Amino acid sequence: MKVLIVYSSVHHRNTEKIAWAMAEVLGADVVRVEDAKPEDISKYDLIGFGSGIYRFKHHKLLFKFVRSLKSVDGKKAFIFSTSASLNGEKFHKKLRRELDKKGFEIVGDFNCPGWVTFGLLRLIGGVNKGKPDESDIENARKFARELTKAMKGFKSTKELR
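The structure corresponding to this sequence follows.
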């Protein structure tokens, strides 16, 4: 199974840490959204899309990339994020809708706290300082292991030929 992780990580590299922890388990290629190429999506069986949460949604560059994609007809994807919120998965809805429009089948979501000093939070030193920590990174690895198990029955288009 070929896996790609496309991410944006702007302020403290919170999401980048999570992307690499998942990639370690999945054996995934990892690319920053600024360097991602829409035509490469077809080469992968599973694609992860992630960023920090900004104003209640994923980073605008991630949305721009997803909107640039051609329809994929059932290609598997997962969504991940880091955020100030302890229940950040609730902010995945907008990205999920965009991926649904492109024909992706979402097979999982992951969120963990990240250190946030955006906007007014910088005046108080931010929230979640030290996050993601080793426990959060291990949870990301666990999520990736669960994805691997869930994908076991999935045959890539190359395997079906």
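The beta strands are 3-8, 29-32, 46-54, 57-58, 76-83, 105-113.
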